[in-house]
Each structure stands twice: as C-alpha cells, then as structure tokens.
Amino acid sequence: MTAAPVVDLKVHHKPADLSDRIALGFTRLLRFCADTFFAKRYGHRAIVLETVAAVPGMVGATINHLKCLRRMCDDKGWIRTLMEEAENERMHLMTFIEVAKPTLFERLVIMVVQWLFYVAFALYLISARTAHRVVGYFEEEAVISYTLYLKELDEGRSPNVPAPAIAKHYWKLPHDATLRDVVLAVRADEAHHRDVNHGFAGELAGHAPAKKVAPYPEHADDTRMAA
C-alpha cells in the first residue's frame, strides 16, 4: 500500500458565469444544511452526504450512456469514469457505516434526501455543465469536511479507532491502519472527483480538458471481500 496522495486544499473554481454561480449557491445551501444538522459529528455527516454523493455519477453515466446510444457516438471515457465515481462514493458509505452507526432517524433522512437529490439531478438533462460544476463544488466542500475531520482526530476530539476491514481491503491499507488513514484516502478520492468534474464542466463550456487532476488512490479491483 502506498501513502495517500497529497491533496491541494486551495483548489477552488472561481465562478465565471450564471451557471457557475447557480452551482456554487446550491452547494453552499447544502453545506449550510449539513453544518446545521450534523455540526461536528463527522462520521454521521459522512454517512448521509456519501449517500447523496453517490447519486450524480450514476445519473450522469446513465444519461451519457443513453445519449451515446442514440447518437451512435463515442463517450470519450466519461461513462466508465462516472460509474467508478458512483461506486467509489458508495464504498465511502459502506466504510463509514462501520464507524458511526446511523440512527433510525438518520436512515429516514437518507431515504428522503437521496430521492430528492436523485430527482433534482435531472438537472443533468437540462444542463450537464451545471450538473458537473455542482459536483465539483460539492467535492470541494467534501475535501474541506474531511480535512476538519482529520483535525478532530489529530486533536483527540474524535477517537482514532482501527480502520474497518472493508476499508483496509478497498484501499489496500495495512493491517494496523486507523480511521485517520481511511479519512486521508477518502479525502484524496474526493479531491480527484473534484478536479474531474470541474474538468468535465469546463469541457462542456468549450474549454480544453483539465491538465491537472489530483491523483487517485489505489483501490482493490474487486470491492467484495473474501468470506
């Protein structure tokens, strides 16, 4: 296993037009709701937000797949990238439910929020560019949240428990890995998704593909664990 990639914490796409400002405003609204509801309960926060974060990749991949079938054209690798993003976010969720057991109320919140976000992300049909920009900003906030989670762990306000078995398998972590190692890997994943989605939004706006993308941590080829 290699160390988690270094993450550039200063990356922020400055809004360039109305589409970007709408995306940023929507993201800040979600951030306000998360801050109000969860405060510094980062484990529980991760469970709910990762449930939502796994939606855009699947929606984007499905719509791109159908579009390419209709137009009989190449997808430029976008479908596989978005499907991988969706699965990666799902693995974040599967990891954090081992760390912070969701309450019944949180499970109800997850069901409601997931469906609302799934319906809302029909935005992809209206403006795929805005949709990818939303995800880019969403991942910017995720990087910030996991950085704050690391601070809580480092300063002893949250217990640095052993890493769940599923996390050690997925990120190929050593047997003595801790929650801090997991959060570092998750943050690196989010930084990669941040740059990829901002890049996709830029391409849809007519710009050249992104030249600089945060490195993606190494993951297991098969997400299933041996019995």
Q: Classify the secondary structure makeup into a structural class.
A: mainly alpha
CATH H-level superfamily: Alternative oxidase
CATH topology assignment: Ferritin
Count the strands? Answer: 0
Q: What is the tally of helical segments?
A: 8
- pLDDT average, as an integer? 91
Helix content: 55-70%
Biggest pleated sheet? none
What is the CATH class designation? Answer: Mainly Alpha
What is the strand and helix layout of this fold?
Blueprint: H1 18-38, H2 42-71, H3 78-96, H4 104-120, H5 123-126, H6 128-154, H7 165-170, H8 179-204
Helix pairs in contact: 1-6, 2-3, 2-4, 2-6, 6-8
How would you concisely characterize the structure shown here?
The longest helix is centred in the N-terminal third of the chain and has 30 residues, at 42-71.
